[in-house]
Every structure is written in structure tokens, then in C-alpha cells.
Amino acid sequence: MSRTSRLLTLLQVLRAKSRPATAAALACELEISERTVYRDIAELTALGAPIQGEAGVGYVLRSGLFLPPLMLNADEAEAVVLGLQYVDQRGDEVLSKAASDALAKIAAVLAPAAQEALRNPTLLPGPRGYGYPDNAVPLNVFRQAIREQSKLHIDYADVNQVPSQRLIWPLALGFLNEARVVVAWCELRNAFRTFRTDRIAAAREQGERYPGRRSDLLRQWRKQFDQDEHERFTPDKN
């Protein structure tokens, strides 16, 4: 068994364990020495595998994001890189840093062919554009409210600068070419709406979770969005 195959097999064995497995048990199952198990565990951990435990106690693979070697081919690697570059261009500082960190972690475990695709991609994102209008409210405020399903009071101004106060259920952040928007349910309109973040002058938590599951609400919004787009581009037969 090659070293790469052995590492992948060890990951699969750990992934199937619900309780910590000792080095002796792993060595027996993989038909390798305990010394090799310790060395492989150390190497996988250095690559980012979420392995927890210690010699004499046992090891367990915790839940977490980890891409083992050979998981991505050249096309898949380029798709990931293109997506992360797009995020770096259009995200805020938090997302740009996250994209850079994720790319570094992925690069550390890619196979040689995929490494070449990473260094010299055949796919490139478009130009950065002219930037985004400044936000009075940091995007982290919306991110946190979305994750916690918290209602938000916002002071909003429409395209004609007409101000209004809204109580919204934030569902997602959208990153468009020239604007960032919050997808939300608006209690004032009793409907799904999108709000440009640069037109939100203030945002305050209501101190109340909105009802239902965010995933279900987002699914309803997508259905409504698709329906509106279909009607928009369907020719009138009359």
C-alpha cells in the first residue's frame, strides 16, 4: 500500500469510528506498525485533519472541513480557485480573508496535477469593477442576525431616497457586481424583499427570533424569485 493510500485508508477507518481508537487497534486493522500509525496521525493532523486524541488514549476524527490528497482533480481545483477568487473580489474583509485562508489550506493537500492547475489556472475571474458603496452598518451585523435568525429593525431609504423603518427577517446576503443586498422577509410589506446594504442607515436587533426555519423561508424565496424571473422573461402571447 502506498503512503497516500495508507493515509486515506486511515482517515476512512477513523471516520467510521464512533469512539476513540487506540494506535494498537488501528495498527492491527491496517496491518501496519504502531509507530507508523503515530507518524501518519501526526502527518494528517499537520495537513489539517481534525484528529483528536493522544498516545495510549486513542484517536477520533472530529467533524470539520478537511480535504485529503487526491480529492480534487484539475477541473475541480480550478472551479474551487475561481470561486474563491470571486469571493475575494466581491466579499468584505471577513470573506476575503476567509477565501485566502481556505485557498492556502486547499493548496496544502492537493495532488501534483491539481497543484499545477492552482498555480496556472485556465479560468480567471472578471475585473474587480468599480467597488461598492460604503455601508453604514457592517456586514457582520447582518451575518450574525442571519445565523441567529434574529429580527432586525432597519432604517432604509429606497432608490428615491424615501426613508422608511422596517422590521425584517434576514435570510441571506447577496453579493452582486455593483451592490450587496440582504434577502429578507419584510413585516411591513408582508412579503420577501431585498434591501441594498448601502441604503441601510442603521440596524438594531429586535431581541426576538423569527419563526420557522431559515432554510424553509429561503426555499420559499427562491421559488418566488424563480417565478418572478420566469414571468419577467416570458413573452406576452396576447
Brief descriptors of the model:
single chain; Arc Repressor Mutant, subunit A; 238 residues; 7 strands
Q: Kindly report how far apart the N and C termini lie.
A: 70 Å
The string of secondary-structure elements, in order, is: HHHEEHHHHEEEEEH
Mean pLDDT: 85
Whole-number total of structural domains: 3
Question: How helical, in percent, are the residues?
Answer: 40-55%
Multimeric organization: single chain
Q: Name the overall outline.
A: elongated
Tell me the fraction of residues in β-strands, as a range.
Answer: 15-25%
Structural class: alpha+beta
**Largest sheet composition:** 5 strands, antiparallel
Ranges where pLDDT stays below 50 over 5 or more residues in a row are: none
Strand order in the largest sheet: 6-5-4-3-7
What is the tally of helical segments? Answer: 8
- The total of beta strands comes to 7
- Work out the radius of gyration: 24 Å
Domain WYL: 139-204
Domain Helix-turn-helix type: 6-59
Protein name: Transcriptional regulator, DeoR family
Organism: Pseudomonas batumici
